[in-house]
Predict the 3D structure of the following.
Amino acid sequence: MMDETNSKAACSTEDLTKEEVIGYLHNLSPVKQGKFFDFQLQSKDRSFRGVCFSPGKRSLFAGLQADGSAVKIKKFRIDTRSNAEDLLMNNNVEIQQLPAAPFPKVDIPSTLTLGMLKSISPGQLITVKAKIIHLQEQKTVKTSSGPLSMIEGQIVDVEGYSKIILWQDFVNKVMQSLLRVKKDNYSKELFVNTAKTGTIIKPSEPFKEVLALAPTFSENVSNVTAAGKVVGIISSSQYLSCIKCNKKIEDDRSDIVACHHCGMKQMKETCDKSYYAQIMFQTEEKENLTITLFDKVIKELISVAGVTDLSGNSFDKLLLDLKNVLITYNKRTKAVSKVNRKVEQEKEVQGQ
Ligand SMILES: [Zn+2]
């Protein structure tokens, strides 16, 4: 077949052929949406994102990652559509440990951003770097293992925020930790808490970036909704972030970009994209509101709209196209947490 022979991407490095790839496993993710997990594969001269759509294989990958030896992976395909060189694999994937190290293993630290929390199934253990911005008073709660002290707080990072519950010894610590994703039975909100075993909380380097605005607890109730439309964009930006350290990358218009923070060179197409927009929203009562949309909300809009190319003015178009919507935003911070399309019942009645 034509496209099988056209493996331009695969031939660009010596340690990746169409048949096999050799490298070290890093940053194996939890199973996401019950469907897949991903990881980074450090090959000889670059790092690939691998995505495996067979959750049952995760324990095999986890064991090999923990072991730390190099592996050889066979039976994958290279996704050249959106993300130039993602290695996609399913149940057929073959992965084997190599007896000798073909090249040195490097350290690839990574943490999950709070913006990604939504895509994680409850019960998974994750690592996040975040800042505690609000803590409630310590409480003692009766549990099946006796009375336990707990404290509820709000954490924030560059992309988003989350409720956090710290149990027992973790009550006063901040933060780079293994946490468990939980789901609130009533509000269905995902949040994180310290796990019974395995949680480590340690101080980390303070954020240099602007952090997301997060409501504090008293403000959670001051989330309000408004119906209306977007009438203008005060400012909007989309930028690339480094695969390794998540920091913003200056786009110098070449195919290969270097991260100013960690120095890693990477293909522009493989970088994550982040979005931000400050917009003017006009309510049905003709009140003009200045509101802010952060990455998480914008990514939801993009996925709902099914847009893949946001170059040119299509990002602004996507925003300006928000008519007849219901927004949920925080009264004080003006940060939007949700955008819903309003059901257009009247139109249906009129048969338009
Ligand atoms: Zn970097």
